[in-house]
Amino acid sequence: MTVEQAIAYIHSNYWNGGTFGLDRTIELLDLLGHPEKGLKFIHIGGTNGKGSTAAMSANILRKAGYTVGLYTSPYIFRFHERMQVNGECISDEELVEIVEKIQPLARSMKSEPSEFELVTCIAFEFFKRHKCDIISLEVGLGGEFDATNTIEPAEVSVMTNIGLDHVELLGDTLEKIAETKSKIIKTGTDAVIYREPASVEAVFENRCKEVGATLTKADFDSLELVSASLEGQIFHWGQYRDLRMPLLGQHQLKNAAVVLTIVEVLRKRGWKITDEHVREGIATVSWPGRFELIGRKPTFIIDGGHNPQCIEALVKNVRDYLDGRRLTILTGVLGDKDYNEMYRDMAPFASEFVTVTPDNPRAMSAGDLKTYLEQFGKPVTACDTVEEGVRLAKSLAGEDGVVLCYGSLYMLGDIVNAARD
Description:
Layout lengths: L2 H10 L10 H10 L8 E5 L4 H14 L4 E4 L11 E3 L2 E2 L2 H16 L7 H15 L4 E5 L17 E4 L7 H4 L3 H8 L8 E4 L4 H14 L2 E4 L6 E6 L2 E6 L2 E6 L4 H19 L6 H9 L8 E4 L3 E5 L4 H15 L4 E5 L7 H5 L8 E4 L10 H8 L6 E3 L3 H12 L4 E5 L5 H8 L2
Parallel strand pairs: 1-5, 1-6, 2-5, 6-7, 7-8, 13-17, 14-15, 14-17, 15-16
Antiparallel strand pairs: 2-3, 3-4, 9-10, 10-11, 12-13
């Protein structure tokens, strides 16, 4: 089996709308000998900021000398990014080896696992083989029936910002969404949450009481921004002075406060993490595709924001970092997203739009997106390829302008490759 064949097999198990639950994941893990048992986790649920929180937490623990796994989704450049140990992605050889082990087991099941269930089991096997001390584990969708929720109680169960996304599966209110996400909190874990409206926090408080978990709410009041530019931010939090972070935006400061709270909880549970480990871990974190500066002349920024909370943060970042500058928006979108939420508040900042088609079967065509965007009264050009779109956007922006690419994480890898050519 080649690595291309292994990845093709994984993708062929795309979710087909079958039974929603944990039974298939548990069955496959049982056939594998339960590689997840005995591993320790930071289990990170929520709607927005899960990946950033996972990456910062993993990097701090790595600086502390631990062997640290990181499991996230989706990927930007290569599938392999989804599972890493100490910053190194799974190799072609090991991915093939694990898929060759898992494939016959999965095919022997009455109901084969979905793609995400399969990937999660591959990741658990990978982390076990590398004898990880702890894994920063991002929930895929929801919580209660997410494949990652087959683990034993985590060291820390984390809730990042809750927003309205996947409402057809998770519920149409923040409280309903919080309810299913809260089910990753189990007896024996400590819980850390991003600050939410009182009605949402009450859901997590009730879950913690139900299972006997200790709840710690991140302290946002002590956050103090010292300075911010496109190169990064400097901030204070609690006893920490002048923490440096390359991730941009006020929402990332709040994510950092959640991470610093996770560190406090881990210390109480016996993990050896110094203030210097924290400082180094935050200063050197890499989390691509989140209001990330990838080029100059023109300034070229990519962002994977696609739901209302992400767009709200993106609008604030445009105001904070790009105020008054000529802005060319390069965009593509999946067909099942709420276009009005994605573009309504951004349109006033745009000088023009350039549309492309993301490389995804659910993508909206560049032409259809062009037709939709024309309602905002700005020039719109649809491009046949990503490369053409990047070239045009750069030309329209000029050396002193800004290209802002957002809409779908699935196109960012192609955008980056084209922008850097």
